[in-house]
Amino acid sequence: MPTRRQCANAIRVLAMDAIEKAQSGHPGAPLGMADMAEALWRHVLKHNPANPHWFDRDRFVLSNGHASMLLYALLHLTGYGLTMDEVRNFRQWGTRTPGHPERNPDLGIEMTTGPLGQGIASAVGMALAERMLAARFNTSEYSIVDHRTWVFLGDGCLMEGVCHEACSLAGTWRLGKLNALYDANGISIDGKVDNWFTEDVAARFRAYGWQVIGPVDGHDYAALDAALAEAKKDTIHPGLIICRTHIGFASPQADSAACHGAPLGKENIAATRKALGWCDPPFTIPEDILVAWDARVQGQAAEDAWQNVFDAYAAAYPDKAAEFSRRMRGDLPEDWADITKVMLDDAVSAGENIATRVASRKALECLVSHLPELVGGAADLTGSVGTCTSASTPLDVAAYTGNYVYYGVREFAMSAVMNGLALHGGFIPYAGTFLSFADQAKNALRLAALMHIRAVWVMTHDSIGVGEDGPTHQPVEQLGMLRLTPDIHVWRPCDGVETAVAWRCALESATAPTVLSLSRQKTVFCARNPQQIRDIARGGYILHACEGTPDIILIATGSEVGLALEAAKALTQQGRKARVVSMPCTSVFDAQDAAWREHVLPSAVRVRMAIEASAADWWRKYVGLDGEVLGMVGFGASAPGKVVFEKFGFTVTHVLELAEHMFNKLGL
Amino acid sequence: MPTRRQCANAIRVLAMDAIEKAQSGHPGAPLGMADMAEALWRHVLKHNPANPHWFDRDRFVLSNGHASMLLYALLHLTGYGLTMDEVRNFRQWGTRTPGHPERNPDLGIEMTTGPLGQGIASAVGMALAERMLAARFNTSEYSIVDHRTWVFLGDGCLMEGVCHEACSLAGTWRLGKLNALYDANGISIDGKVDNWFTEDVAARFRAYGWQVIGPVDGHDYAALDAALAEAKKDTIHPGLIICRTHIGFASPQADSAACHGAPLGKENIAATRKALGWCDPPFTIPEDILVAWDARVQGQAAEDAWQNVFDAYAAAYPDKAAEFSRRMRGDLPEDWADITKVMLDDAVSAGENIATRVASRKALECLVSHLPELVGGAADLTGSVGTCTSASTPLDVAAYTGNYVYYGVREFAMSAVMNGLALHGGFIPYAGTFLSFADQAKNALRLAALMHIRAVWVMTHDSIGVGEDGPTHQPVEQLGMLRLTPDIHVWRPCDGVETAVAWRCALESATAPTVLSLSRQKTVFCARNPQQIRDIARGGYILHACEGTPDIILIATGSEVGLALEAAKALTQQGRKARVVSMPCTSVFDAQDAAWREHVLPSAVRVRMAIEASAADWWRKYVGLDGEVLGMVGFGASAPGKVVFEKFGFTVTHVLELAEHMFNKLGL
Q1: Which residues of chain B make contact with A618, given a CB cutoff of 8 A?
Q2: Which of chain B's ends, N or C, has fewer CB atoms near its CB within 10 Å?
Q3: Which of A160, A303, A411, A498 is catalytic?
Q4: Under a CB-based contact definition with an 8 Å cutoff, are residues A581 and A540 in contact?
Q5: Which 8-state DSSP code applies to residue B558?
């Protein structure tokens, strides 16, 4: 029977050898955290390596994702399907062992980490999901939802602002089943942290309402066991266990930044092997250590026990069990088609000139009342963004009832928590803020895209139409920023009907996040025939047709579609054949077949004008060198919205001038 | 002689009346903070309304910028040149009283605020600048730099992550002359904060190493005076004065979110007037109150006293005084042309194939040794981003010596602090992180652009060339995101020579921030004639020419220029006339006259290909509908950089294929 230290050392050698082979990676953290990992993963963590999809597993998040080899070593050793070949091919093309962990539900990687602080922030969302789901599905006899969320994090995570935002919320939400182990090694990339990280972390977390344990010696198993036990006992306060560790433990570079982000090198590895008393060659783990780590038998037993409970639950509460299973699968309700038909019909028949943020609230009225998996919220702009419906009730942390979360002024944490809610399963998060504050949330949206998460960001006040609040609150470049981010769908609907379709598409987008860009101000209702209504879901379609080949195509989105329609009328009066294309979602339009794209935007028609009150350059994609863009080339300004639009040239007169300019330039 | 409350009430009525007239704005905070403002501005703040440019004034930052009418009222009442007409035209087109304060040095508005948390974060930078400048210029006899930084902030600021990052640094940096007055009214837009903001703010700030005073009654002048005096006494710990206030003080909507962001309405205003005992009509302030507020005489006296000290200083230390004045004006050194000539000549004669991040460090070696105003730093990536030179010494808070700041893993606060350093004057900040983490800093960069700040962001590892660290660390959309942001110059140099020019342009850009996008991996040195070297500063120029009109133009930036040159060679061998345009800075290129743009990119040549390992769509601006973009359409992947480039098609073969495709399509 190997010692616990020998078990931990298996992580250490795998990490340093794989990093050496790749000639790239971060050995310091895996060497430092190996004992913490042994204490958690071999003795406390509830999981079944044979089935990474087991719903009631504990969630584990490696917030300091650069320690990826720690996780890969654990997945390999405990019996997940990660082979030694994959460990050996760490950081190579096409492997499941990339430089930073990438979400892989089949392998047991809960989320993508690397950008520091976001692991812990999304873990807060996972822990919240667990409590909310337990409140909805557990009964007095059956606890089918009962697991913990464990996080490893380092100094870097604690310095990042998103960690502050999320951990403050975790305290408020009393997430006692969330526990973070802080790898307090006192070293970051630039060296000893004394000159840039002097805060009293324990006091700070107590101020958030956390239980703080330690500092304990992160290499002392008894101390770690005791700390973990103490953490588990407190189910009201989230727990932070401060573990004092030595980065690069046992290596000649221990306690120095030198081992943070570069391979140790042959000599140091040899010296570390000696210090660890490890005699085996690289990528060879002694059988007894492999046996000691293998968690499949006990994992399967744990899952089997849970399955028995769940089966009994299903027998007693077949409807609840079916609903639970549906939500875990992420399927939309069976009557989804009916629900969305009602939502869309309502929007069509209302025929209102309303702000799309209001149209969104109306769509949500229908959706929230029918989809219990929706968890709404806002970053302290509830009334403005219209995310709270009559079917919404605030999260109440006494019982974890409610389906609406007040995130406070924390756009970044809100978004990372949304990611965590979605990753956990059982919920589809949506929440709102102003589009200009997409900036603060940006990297969480990027991670949502990288992780193929279904979540909906309701981003309102989406142009200079914001008016008086001025340039800090008027987005200009944000639409382009989000559209350029791969695998995010950005919908900018032009009226209530497009808004309803956008919501439907957003919720049907099971593997990509959606941003809804919505107006503060009223938009013009557009009449459409049934085919046009169906075409909205293609991302771009002909909203206003003309006879034959158009002389000019106006492409517009959102609140500027009304202007395009008015301008088209004026152009028609001038004897020009003008088509208006509404383009609510460019990524969806781009994914249509070539025939559709050619149908909407015939290659031969080069007299094209894009009209959108956001950064103009992005639209060159559709209008090319010959076209014109009526967009923004600078920041907005503070004044009533209508005045701002006029001053920046969003008028029929200006559209006609630009059109004339194009016709002249092309000799038409 | 009016009472202090009457003086404060002048702010209240101006605020509620101006907001009512605009039918837009945030009355709650000005009404709540008016007494705090009276205590600070009438009794403590060192300023001269007759000269907002007086260097040694205290800095005042309204971090909760939605309370803008508080600031406008103060500027009007104390004697800055803000007229009652301007107050009356609050939030109207073209006025100096926009919805949120916009930096206006001529008017006494130190910075643009609105995005919560960034005011306090930049104030940390201002306070650091004061200490560092004092250390450099004060002598034992003469204190020419000796002022405080005052901040008003609210619950929202404290929830935002950037506040955590910056305030932790302020504690570490022992910025005792920074003092924040916290408007603790317990209300944010969504209502009473009890459900989303429960942390113990006092304990949290003590954990950062701050002095925490209060809570005091924010409407009790004696308590406020005492708190301000106590705060001033402690010159080692930054101070947080917690002021319990009533939002919408004296209005029927006091203590409710209803008064946060909407005009009070006629009836409520009448009731508030009555409660305040205010009988005058809107926009009319009784003469005695105006006299009581007018701070011009005492302000001029304070400035005169300082001027006397400065004159004596200048007599005793003429060189120091001249240098101080130069730095305050923001002029570059007299020998700037010589310095940059050396820097550029070195890069040309070195002729090395080096990573542009290394080229940047070489340029900095020259610049930092000659420009004492440069304050460098990094977000815990010093070695990687190359911002620390042999002339750099770390900030030492015992004496505020040093010119290099270790910001820790805090990209957002780093950027906001850089803004503060620049706003204060006397410094030009530059600092680095990875380009993918521009996300976290984004809104601070936006504010830098809005405020016309000179600062340089050194953003390295600027593409999939990052390699093994994988997609979380490989920027894709970030270049587009930054280029679409108005008034930021993004330079992506292709070799050491372009890097040197980029640095020169960045430092000469006195009214716009610069982002340098730099490679992790080696780039290919390009030979240029003297005219070409001069042309780099035009943002885009012909790097490789062909005879006559080109058959094809390859437009490339940064590390992909080498590929473009190779491909051009191959195209030439195929009998095609190929031009290579290097486009290191698109915004600068766009600002050139039409003749230059036509010279570089003749309209008639439509066979154009842009080559850049970042989001492809952005480049449609230059290649139009007929051209091709060899860029990224998805996220990157973890593998050695060369492998990643090859897998994503950045090869000569692929360029030739795309070129062939274009020639075929256009029948050439």
Answers
A1: 480, 484, 617-618
A2: N
A3: A411
A4: yes
A5: G
- Would the CB atoms of B410 and A624 count as touching at under 8 Å? no
The token duo for A623 is: 């209008």
**Between β-strands B187-188 and B191-192, what pairing exists: parallel, antiparallel or unpaired?**
antiparallel
CA distance A117 to A140: 36
State yes or no: is A411 an active-site residue. yes
Q: Which tokens is B45 given? A: 């703040």
Inspect the interface and report whether the beta carbons of B618 and A406 lie closer than 8 Å: no
pLDDT tens by residue, B439-488: 999 999 999 999 999 999 999 999 999 999 999 999 999 999 999 999 99
B411, B498, B560, B612: which is the annotated catalytic residue? B411
8 Å CB contact of A160 and B159: no
d(CA A30, CA A113): 15
B430 three-class SS: strand
Whole-angstrom distance, CA of residue A523 vs CA of residue A543: 15
Produce one character per residue of A496-523: b if its CB has 16 or more CB atoms within 10 Å, e if not: bbbbbbbbbbbbebeebbbbbbbbbbbb
Say which of A159, A162, A626 has its CB closest to residue B408. Answer: A159
- Which of A124, A435, A484 to probe the B interface (max B CBs under 10 A)? A484
In b/e form, how buried is each residue of B6-19, taking b as 16+ CB within 10 angstroms? bbbbbbbbbbbbbb
Show residues of chain B in contact with A91, CB under 8 Å.
Answer: 468, 470, 638-640
Q: Rounded to whole angstroms, what are the CA distances from B341 to B345, B367, B492, B495, B534?
A: 6, 11, 20, 17, 11
Q: Which of B91, B443, B621 sits opposite A617 (nearest CB)?
A: B621
B407 contacts on A by Cβ (under 8 Å): 196
CA distance A81 to A106: 9
pLDDT along chain B (668 residues), means of 10: 97 98 97 98 98 98 98 98 98 98 98 98 98 98 98 98 98 98 96 96 98 98 98 97 98 95 96 98 98 98 98 98 98 98 98 98 98 98 98 98 98 98 98 98 98 98 98 98 98 98 98 98 98 98 97 98 98 97 98 98 97 98 97 98 98 98 91
d(CA B476, CA B613): 7
User: What would you report as the CA-atom Rg of chain A, rounded to the nearest whole angstrom?
Assistant: 28
pLDDT tens sequence across A548-558: 999 999 999 99
Judged against a pLDDT cut of 90, whether residue A667 lies above it is answered with: no
Residue type, A484: L
CB-CB neighbors (< 8 A) of B206 in chain A: 200, 203
Amino acid occupying residue B153: L
CB contact under 8 A, B92 and A484: no
Q: What is the DSSP letter of B81?
A: S
Calculate helix-pair angle for B356-370, B496-508, nearest 10 degrees. Answer: 40
Residue of A nearest to B111 (CA): A472
Identify the pLDDT of residue A20. Answer: 98
Predicted confidence band at A419 (pLDDT cuts at 50, 70, 90)?
very high
CB contacts, 8 Å: A436 with chain B: 115
Helices (H) and strands (E) in chain A, counts: 27, 18
Q: How far is A530 from chain B (nearest CA, A)?
A: 32
The two structure tokens encoding residue B591: 């600002």
B472·A94 Cβ contact <8 A:
no
pLDDT at A668: 82
Residue type, A105: P
Single pTM value for the model: 0.98
Which tokens go with B587? 């915004």
Give the model confidence (pLDDT) of A627-663 as tens digits: 999 999 999 999 999 999 999 999 999 999 999 999 9
Would you call A620 and B620 a contact, using CB atoms and an 8 Å cutoff? yes
Q: Do B440 and A381 touch (CB under 8 A)?
A: no
- Residue-level pLDDT at A362: 98
